[in-house]
Structures are given as C-alpha cells and as structure tokens.
Specification:
homodimer, 444 residues, alpha/beta, six-stranded mixed β-sheet, four-stranded antiparallel β-sheet, 17 helices, 13 strands, 45% helix, disordered C terminus
Chain lengths: 444, 444
C-alpha cells in the first residue's frame, strides 16, 4: 500500500512518529517529485516543532545516503577517519588536524563543501594557495589517500544530492535549526564519505549554527546515535564560537595562520584546539586519552604534520613553498591598515559580526558561484581578556581599497567591545559527547 | 522595510504572533508569487500547531476579502442575511431555510460553492431540478433578490480568489482542520458576500469537518469575532453530524426531501433543524426568541416558504412543477432496491461512510469538473434509535446499475450498525454561539 503524504504529514503535525519505511517513502517520493515542496515543507515544519525521534533521524539519514554514491574506503590500510565542523568563524582547524592525523597513521579522505554565508569554506581557504586543486574525482581521492594518507577535496554532485535539495528547501522555510535535521544532513555526508571514525566539532555561540550549549549537546548526541546505527564510531567536542577561533579571518590569512601553527611558530587557541581535536580523533580509533594527547602534540612538535601538509599541497598541485614562506607565497591585499581603539581590555569580539565583515571585504560569497577575494580579511591581534596599551592596534584590516578599509573600521567599532574591567578569556572546549563508557563498535 | 518571509515563518514556528500588517504582507506576497508554496505551507503548519490569535485570524480574513470583489447589498430594502453550513451529509437545509427567510421578509443573496469530496454541494442539488441555472452574475443575483427576496447562485471566480488558492494548498499539506484557518476561509466569503447578518451551522461529528464539540465551539467563536471585527452580526448553531441529517443522501433525493418539508408532508430532523436555523437567523436581525420561533414555524406552515421556493425555481429557469410533484419531475435512478438487515434497533448510521457510499454511487465528484449523477443515492428509512421489524427495510438504494446496488448493500452492512438494545435518538442542536448577552452592532 502506498502511504499518503497528507496522512503522514498529519501524523507528525499531531505529534506522532513515522516508521523508518514511512520516512524512507516520504523523502524518496519527494526526490522523485511525487511529494511536492509544499508538502515536504509542511512535514519538516511539523517535525521541527513536534520533534523527530532517534529512529526517524536515522531513517532520514539512511534515505539521504541512498540518494547518492557512497565512497568505499575499505581498500585503505589503517584506520579511516573524518573530521567535520558545524561551521564557525576563523575555523581553519581542518588544515592543521587532517595532516596531524595522517602523520599519526590515519587515513584521511576529507570531503568538504564550499562556504556560503558568513563562514568561509575549507576549499576556499585551500584554493588561496597558488596552483592548489580541490576538484578531485572519488578515484583520485582514494589514490592520493593510499599514497600519502591524506586528501582534502570538494564533495562532488554525486555525494548525497538529496541533502542539497532538502537543505535548499529548509533554508527558505525556517526549518534549518532542528538538531535532528542538522544531524541527518551532516551524518549523511559523513557516512557516504566512507570513514569508520568521525570526529565532530560542534560549534556553540553567537558565530555558530547553534547558540546554546544544551542544543549543541542534543545535536551531538543525535549524530553519535545516527553514526552508531550505521556502524560508525562518532565523537564530538562542543567548542566555543563566541569569538573567532583563528587569529585571522579571511582565506589566505587563515591558511597562513594554520601554516604558522604547523611550523610551531604560533601558539594560542588555534593550536590548542587543533591538538584537542586530533587527540579526540585518536581516541576514537582506540588510543587511551593520555597516549592520544601525547601523540597529537608529538606529530605537531616533530614537524611530521607540517611535512604531511607539504605532501598534501604538492599532491594537489599547490606551491609547496607556501609551507616555508607562507606570507611571501600567499596572495596579499593592497591595503593593510591597523585599527586602534581607545586602550582597555577586550570584553567581546562578536564572531558573527567579524565573519560578516570579512565577507563584506570580499572573503566570502553571498551566492553560489560568486567569486571571492582570497587576500582580504582581518587579523585579530588581541583576544577577549587581553589588554591593549595606548596606541596598540587590536585588529589589522586587509582590504582591496582604502574605502573598504575605512568602512571596516566603523564595523570593528561595533563588533569589538573594549572596557576598563578585567575580563576572563573564553574557554575553548565546553564539553564532549561519545567518549564516555564503553566503545561503540565500528567498522575497521 | 519589507518583512522577510523566513523571519515571519520563524516567529510563528517559535510560538510568536504576527501583526495585522505582517499577515497582510505575507498573504499578499504569496498571492503575488513572491512567497512560494513551500514557505506558505511551512507558515500554515507552524500556525496550525502553535495557533493563530483572534487578531491574526481577522487580519487573514481581511486580506482574503481584499483579493476579490465584494458584493454591495446596500441597495436592498430589508435586513440582508446569509446562512452557511460547514458541511454535512444530507445537509439540504439551505433549500428550506433560504425560502423561509425570504418569506419572513429577509433579503437572501446566497452564494455557494460546488461540492467536492463526500458532502454534495447545494448547487449540485439545485441543478437536479430540470432547467435550473445557478451561474448568475453578481448583477443578476442582486436584481433577483430585489424582485423576490431570494437567489441561490454559484460564487463566481471573483469572490475571494485568494481563499481558493490557499485552500488548495491547505488541502495537500495537512493544514485544513485549524479553527482559525477554517474561520477566516468561511468568513472571508461571507463578508465578501455582503450580508449584514450571518447564521452559521457548524456541524459536529464523524460526518463533519470537526468531530469534537469544543473544537466546533472554538471555530464558531472565531467566526463571531471575525464577523464583529468586520461589522457583521454572526451567530452559530452547533449541530450533530454523526448520522446524516436528511432522510436521503443524493442530489435529487435531497431536493425531493426538502420539497416535502416545504410542503408540510414530512416532519423529522430535517424539518426541525430548518425551523431552528431560520429562527436563529431571525434572532440575529433582532427578533426575540419566541417571536423568531413562531415566525419561522409560521412561514413553513402557511405555505409561504413553499411559494418562495417556487419563485426561486422559476426565476432561475427551473421547472416549477417540481414543487407540486417532486418525484415525477426530478430525475430517478434505474435501479431502486431495498436493504433489509436482520431486525433490531438502529444503533449507528455512520454519516461519513454513507456520504462516501452515495459518492461512490455517483452522487459526488471526486475531482473538480467531474460529472455527477443527480438521480443516485440512498434513502434512510429509519434513524438511530428506531426499530426495524422482521423484513422491514432500513435503507433504499438508488443506483445506476445492479452491480452498484449490490456493492452498496455490502457498504451499508458496514455503515449501519443494528443491535438488540434500545438506543436513544441523537440530539439535533448541541449548542449555540453568539446569541447571549447584548447584541453586537451590525450594519443595517
């Protein structure tokens, strides 16, 4: 018997649950255009308000995965791992953590999307390296991982096309923020990506998709449950995204900062979180906590991670000298000016506002297909809790023109709050999900 | 500033309310195709779950009225009245009550829709009278009401086109049953129809849009409030629709039953409810309760209502002899067979199942534009609580073929429950709304 879309919508409206078969039918029928946008929008809204249970989220993930072509990583020797961030400002950790994990013996086939909106995408950042290619076929990705343990490439149109269609609908119908919908969207792509171990960096705060810690925990728990239902080992760190993570926001600026961390030239939150994320991933593949942390710090300190990054850049056609002299090789902006507020303690740096400012300087695209300027962005010279002395700049603007730079100064006045009182630095990791108790079973 | 559809959807999703201006913008933008079906469906679903307040319902009604052409009845002498049923099975009261009210001095410009689904429409019923026309222009309606106090015609495409579009969307997205949405749909058409006094017959039960008395009361209260906000005097009777109202279900069969009531040849629930509805309408125009009831019964007993019905049929091109010899003039079915169950007391007659059975015999259309068979349907010879003696039929099937008739017998076995225990007849009127306390002000 064919289910009726109206009956299934009505059941969700009244607070009921759908079976896996019903979820599967509804989404498939939508993707076959037998259920229309309006019906799917009504269903999603009912689900956002009434809630989806774990079985529904797993079924939704399953049917999304089936809309595309999954990548089979079973040919690879060594544990396959993936790392995903829900998106933050100045979040360039993938470019540090992926080489660290490859240096630690993991197989890292990392597929990314392009950035849209206020958060730049990993691919856009990588492409600021002269010559760097990210449009690899699944076969090329697999071959490169076999050779050097690492590839970072664009997710092709075959990877979960159903999610793209559903996301476009959610985007215009106020149904983006639901934990179960976010989790099934994220996890469908991770599961199709083939890795057995998946580390999630769930960002929490004003610059993130979820502003609230409890919501972030719910989202992370959903992802862990969905992953388990598909035989994957999933863990999540819940990390602060009230102020930008990197000391810079903008594509080349972030790559430069990442290279500095890999070179051992820069400490601070970007370094610290990268070590935490790599260690957490190593715990997912079976390392004890202490061993994971020391191995994570070790591959960074020894320069092995830097060499992996160099191999990555070379393998994908980029100029490997960016590893040695990043600021000479990466594109630089025409206008670089400092922003120097009245002296005081930095009370707040509004991550979303900084992200939007970088975007308005040209660092992000507002629509699919738009060109971006790799050179522009902002350096943040101080963090929350740090004091600026008289005449000391707090930010540095990298702009395409003087006019842009002047406008950016005004925006910084709004985005950064200075004050006289002392102020604690913000914590980096707010919690974790999926690491307590016994190990979940995972495919090798 | 142009509001954002996504922001308004999000506010309703989170339980907030929209201003009248925001509701107006959203619906207008939808009808201009600037807000798409998916966004409107998401908004409606959020509203169905979170609820719309009175101001939102009034604003929705207002913007719907403005999508079309309202009818100006101010030229008419005497109180203008309208009567609307939310739809039931065997509900042919309009053909009795409208002539009664015209006979009592009211001006009745009644615009109806075509039936769709399990309840037949008043227009379909009228058209079973040979020659009867219902497609009158607003000018023709007005002229006829001036002359004889009464017209029953099809609502043209200009009357609240926005409601048709919104209803089509609600129909496929599980958002039909909300009291505020039903109320604004009903009231937009009543307000555009121009009458100052509006009597609603809100059906309650298995054969109606709302199955629950409290929901029906909420719906009626919504309608009264919306009417008041537009300067109309509105009252509602909440009436039982668990068993079919008329002793017959089917177009010509119902018209025949209505003529028998008008002729004084038939008592029972159809007669009794018609008197109640006419009396309630007369109370709306200012009559005291006792006076209203005696006037209502009087125009029926005196034959004045029957003569008004004859004038109506003549004015709209129908054969007036149907008033004198209905069963000779109205179309009749080829196959007429009795259904005789084991003797016992009628415990239940499932109105919805009976409506669907009549529809499957050919009395209702399943899609817009489909032809219907005016002759087919069912006579219900006994009501709930009445006893059938051995060999006494409980229903009579009017079908186009022997096969249809045999299938109908099987369906009747399911729709009608017989039993040995005594059983109370079902009450007719379950409550009323809008008649207590002081009169609301209304345009003359």
């Amino acid at each position: 018997v064919t289910p009726s879309a109206v009956a299934l919508i009505g059941r969700k409206r009244d607070g009921g649950a759908l079976s896996a078969a019903e979820i599967g039918w509804l989404i498939s029928a939508y993707l076959r255009n037998e259920v229309d946008d309006a019906q799917m929008a009504a269903f999603l809204m009912a689900g956002v308000i009434r809630g989806f249970n774990d079985d529904e989220a797993a079924a939704l993930t399953e049917v999304l995965v089936e809309t595309g072509r999954s990548i089979d990583l079973s040919i690879l020797k060594g544990p396959t791992v993936d790392k995903h961030s829900t998106g933050g400002v100045g979040d360039v950790t993938t470019l540090i953590v992926a080489p660290m994990l490859a240096a630690a013996g993991c197989q890292v086939a990392k597929l990314s999307g392009r950035g849209l909106g206020h958060t730049g995408g990993t691919l856009d950042k990588l492409e600021s390296i002269p010559g760097m290619r990210v449009d690899l076929s699944p076969e090329q990705v697999l071959r490169q991982v076999e050779q050097i343990g690492l590839a970072v490439a664009a997710a092709g149109p075959d990877l979960v096309p159903g999610d793209r269609r559903l996301y476009a609908l959610r985007d215009v119908t106020g149904t983006v923020g639901d934990p179960a919908l976010i989790a099934s969207s994220v996890m469908s792509k991770k599961i199709a990506g083939g890795a057995a171990h998946i580390l999630l960096d769930v960002k929490v705060g004003g610059g993130a998709l979820v502003a609230d810690l409890e919501q972030a925990r719910t989202l992370a728990e959903r992802c862990v449950t969905i992953g388990s239902a598909h035989g994957r080992r999933v863990g999540a760190l819940l990390t602060q995204m009230d102020e930008p993570l990197a000391p810079a926001v903008g594509n080349a600026l972030e790559v430069g900062a990442a290279v500095e961390v890999l070179r051992g030239d820069r400490r601070g939150p970007l370094h610290d979180l990268s070590v935490e994320l790599a260690a957490a991933t190593l715990r997912l593949i079976g390392h004890k906590e202490e061993e994971a942390v020391s191995k994570s710090a070790g591959v960074l300190a020894s320069g092995e991670a830097l060499e992996k990054f160099r191999e990555l850049v070379s393998a994908q056609g980029g100029d490997p000298s960016c590893v040695d002299r990043p600021w000479d090789v990466l594109p630089s902006a025409d206008v670089v000016v400092d922003w120097t507020p009245s002296p005081g303690v930095v009370q707040r740096i509004d991550a979303r506002a900084i992200g939007e400012l970088a975007g308005s300087l040209g660092a992000a695209r507002r629509r699919l297909g738009e060109a971006i300027d790799p050179a522009v962005g902002l350096e943040l010279l101080l963090r929350v809790g740090e004091r600026s002395e008289d005449g000391q700049p707090v930010a540095r603007i990298h702009a395409a023109s003087r006019t842009d730079a002047e406008e950016a100064k005004d925006a910084l006045e709004q985005a950064v709050t200075m004050g006289d009182e002392a102020c604690e630095p913000l914590p980096l990791v707010l919690g974790s999900v999926g690491f307590d108790g016994e190990d979940h079973s995972a495919r090798p």
